Predict the 3D structure of the following.
Amino acid sequence: MAREKLIKSLFLAVISTIVVLLLFELALFLSGELYYASRLKNTVKIGLDKNIVKILCLGDSFTFGMGARKEYAYPKQLERRLNENKFENKKYVVFNVGVPGNTSSKLLNHLEEDLQAFSPDIIIVLIGMNDRFCIEETNYFLFKHKGLINRLLYYLSGTRVYKLFKRFVSTLEIRVWEDRLKKTYRTDPVCEPFKSREKGLSVDTAKLKTARKHLELATEKYFNARDIKLEPAIEEFQKAVEIMPDNKDGYLGLAQIFIHSDKFDLAIDQLEKAIEIDPCDKEAWNKLWLVYYRMGKLSLAQEALKKYLYLYPADLPKYLLFLQSGFPDCKNFDAFTDLLSNNLQRIIDIAKRRKVGIILQDYPNLPVLIASAIADKNKVIFVQQQLAFSKLAFQENYSRDYFVEDGHCNGKGYAVMAENVYQVLRTDFFNAADAGE
């Protein structure tokens, strides 16, 4: 009898807890909706005009338009193309929320906020290329173990109660790790407070000025978010290093180019020179752990990351999971395929729940097969960019005509992407007959 009462009490306690959590989740949901609704009412005027069709392009550097000027990114070219033929006398506004280095995890984690901010009619998603290497905010650890508890945590991870609880626990863990890193590295000679080599030495201001000109030319003209000219950038950084060999910025610039080009041994060589000049340069340590990670040298990556976080503890929240669980294995293609599949599925689910049209696509030079399969499974429109570009590949000077050195599109390549999306929109979302075509 006592045992039955105990079981009944435990059952009622569990049910009560679940009910309380559900009510709390509902309260957080409603308060969030009311907050965003009031914010939209005050800030997003464009959403009040029914004659405007809003399209939100989400993705990484291919959406951002790396390799071309801003007006030649595919979202901007798509907007111009749509407004050349106004279907049903509407105006089309295309928002570009492409972020270089973006991943499916980060896109998913910020999707609700983006939908609230822009209130789009259609979203166009191109994502997945960076999932294995740009692992900040990754959802990878939801798939590290396949047990029932992890699956439950995966589904709970989208709730506001879980996020609130996780944030509270993470705050405590961050403090523990900050103290731990201080105890480990504050006596490490590598991370003693840096004393500039130039202190007490005469600095040739003319040489310094010349070196800075080469650095500026390298970053502003040859190697930035819009222009990718690797060889000229390397030459300018090398000139800066020759003039001022004790200036770490030239080595950091060269390292960034070599990372971008997957020349990791060369990148490490430059980073080690930068660290020799300034052992406490957080940018150098940040790049170093990333290089080791991409090379699959996870223990070295872990050590470099710890030194970076000791120097810059403000980033502890971003990398807490990597301190706790280690790095994901970037060579485990199955895990990252699973990650992309689940993230795309949740992106589609959110779009459908919000009654927003959605289009998926693949890259011009890289088919994303899992994206095609997810689109087919959910009966979502899929733009086959890679197939369209493969039909152009027989042309003479194909690579030079449509791409820049690192594989991103140039303005002409983004025009092809925009046209492919335009044709899908024209066929599947708008009434072509009303457009007079």
Observations:
- The longest strand covers residues 52-59.
- Residues 197 and 222 are 30 Å apart (CA to CA).
